[in-house]
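Input.
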Amino acid sequence: MSLSIETQVAKYLKRLNISFDLIHNGIEVKESWGNQKVNSYKIFIGKFSYDFYQGLGCKGDPTPASVLYCLLSDIRLKDYSVQDYLDEFTGQDQGDLTLNEFADIEYLIGSCEDTAFKIEETFTDRQVETLDRLLQDY
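Output.
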């Protein structure tokens, strides 16, 4: 019997002696999510913390697998330009954006750079590759 992805990721973190913990901060309205109400968390992985949000439709607290899946996806954006981001997610041209929309995307890309730094300080490249492999079908 094969282990679930959730179990494999949790065991891998334990084997690496990297802690995972979270604090639920309650429900908040996330303006960047179209004023949607979300569960707000502070996630702790190793020595770093991350703000993490989960839609109210998601049952239960985030797991190491669900959080790492999101974080590893986010760090791929760190090298994007605003136009790269638009090409990937909206199909718009950056010339059609308002100054606020442009600034919001730049802020998002910058936050992905911060996340990448934390991940790179917590995991080796090889460990990130292992996590990517474990999470590929998540």
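The helical segments are 5-16, 64-75, 82-89, 99-122, 125-135.
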